Amino acid sequence: MTQTPLLQDTAYLDDLRRQMIKFATLQLGNPEQAEDAVQEAMLAALKDASRFTGRSALRTWVFGILKHKIADLLRQRMRLVSVSSLANDDDEDGEALMESLFDAQGHWRDDASPTDWGRPEVHLSQKQFWAVFEACLNHLPPKQARIFMMREFVELDTETICDATGISGNHLFVLLHRCRLRLRACLETRWVNPTESSR
Amino acid sequence: MISCLRATALASRALDAPIGFKDWFRLRLHLRFCRRCRACSDQMQWLRMASRAFVSGETAGRDVD
User: Fold this and answer.
1) I need a surface site. Which of A52, A53, A136, B21 has the fewest CB within 10 A?
2) How does the average pLDDT of chain B come out, rounded?
3) How far is A76 from chain B (nearest CA, A)?
4) Strand partners, A92
């Protein structure tokens, strides 16, 4: 293996590994399996580390490998979360959320209605935005967060998620809808219009 | 016209699976007249982009070369 400056940067590699373990543990709910998946992904990626000219390229590559490994593990494992525990997680919070956002006719309440975010892509380059994004993710009910991440982070299709969790397609659509409403509301309150929420 | 609750559910669902023509038309009609749902729909699509950027680290501020 060719020694590259990236491979000598142990602080960067430690930080990358820590982020990967956090991500894999969230997905798999099992620290040992997460550790194994991360180790395999890092070994596979570092074999070709000389191909990468920068940290971002290596990070993208290694997370891509990790996502495939997580998807394989989830497919193998199936029924990761029992139907009843998922339903319980959602029922109480979900109804309260909808009542806080929509009136009895299903129209937006004035104090919850979405505002224009302008050009949200500019946020992606701001370090502080990602801290808020992560905080909002952590604010989701844990099992719903896992489903959201299966869909949007690991990019599993809905059929695979249903197989892995044992929930129906319709239930999955409901959970994803609620997760997205929660996340966008959280970002609006904490990032886009933080001053309005503190009035 | 469908409610905002229904419109946002359809907009979310359309990110995960094809929706039928009738639902697609109802959603488009609603979005044409409802700026709140239009904003919400755009933001849900944007969340997908942000989530994928979050994982891949394709962000200047987060992981600079």
Assistant:
1) B21
2) 87
3) 22
4) none
ipTM confidence: 0.90
Measured CA to CA, the distance from residue A30 to residue A24 in angstroms comes to: 8
pTM as predicted: 0.76
Q: Which of A16, A17, A56 should be substituted to probe chain B, the one whose Cβ sees the most B Cβ atoms within 10 Å? A: A56
Q: Which helix (H) or strand (E) holds B41?
A: helix B35-56
Query: In this complex, which of B35, B43, B54 lies closest to A184 when CB atoms are compared?
Result: B43
Tell the burial category of A198 from Cβ atoms under 10 Å away from its Cβ (0-12, 13-18, 19+): exposed
Q: Which of A54, A124, A184 sits opposite B44 (nearest CB)?
A: A184
DSSP A191: I
Which of A105, A152, A160, A186 should be substituted to probe chain B, the one whose Cβ sees the most B Cβ atoms within 10 Å?
Answer: A152
Burial zone of A62 (CB within 10 Å; 0-12 exposed, 13-18 middle, 19+ buried) = buried
Q: What confidence category does residue B46 fall into, taking pLDDT thresholds of 50, 70 and 90?
A: very high
Q: B52–A54: do the CB atoms touch at under 8 Å?
A: no
- In whole angstroms, give the CA distance from residue B59 to residue B63: 6
Q: How far apart are CA B40 and CA A180, in angstroms?
A: 9
Query: CA B12 to CA B9: how far, in whole Å?
Result: 5
